[in-house]
Specification:
Blueprint: E1 3-8, E2 16-20, E3 27-31, E4 37-41, E5 55-57, E6 64-66, E7 73-75, E8 91-92, E9 94-97, E10 100-104
Keywords: 2Fe-2S, Iron, Iron-sulfur, Metal-binding, Nitrate assimilation, Oxidoreductase
Pfam family, one: Rieske_2
Protein name: Nitrite reductase small subunit NirD
């Protein structure tokens, strides 16, 4: 695994996402309230909907994204679907250094 520079933090909309191309599929990098950054595979565990187009809400460890297709909520910290839904999406480590977002791939 190696750290890949994504972009300056300010280029990811607050409560939004940016998509990073990867050989294994798209990765959505989310910016939650409080400038917390998370990264998940850009596919809902339900039917593969684009999580990057969903609504981000919450902050810190309680941040979630709502899939735009069927309304499933996915925990951004763990990648697990929130009850009563079940499933999980791959998550990636992120860090912010000097206002620049990094992704471990």
């Amino acid at each position: 695994m190696a750290w890949q520079k994504v972009c300056p933090l300010e280029e990811i909309p607050l409560l939004g996402a940016r998509v990073v191309a990867h050989e294994d599929g798209a990765i959505a990098v989310f910016r939650a309230d409080g400038d917390t950054v998370f990264a998940l595979r850009d596919a809902c565990p339900h039917k593969g909907g684009p999580l990057s187009q969903g609504i981000v809400h919450g902050s810190g460890e309680s941040a979630r994204v709502t899939c735009p297709l069927h309304g499933w909520n996915v925990d951004l910290d763990s990648g697990h679907a929130c009850a009563p839904d079940e499933g999980c999406v791959e998550r990636y480590a992120t860090k912010v250094e000097h206002a620049v977002v990094w992704l471990e791939v």
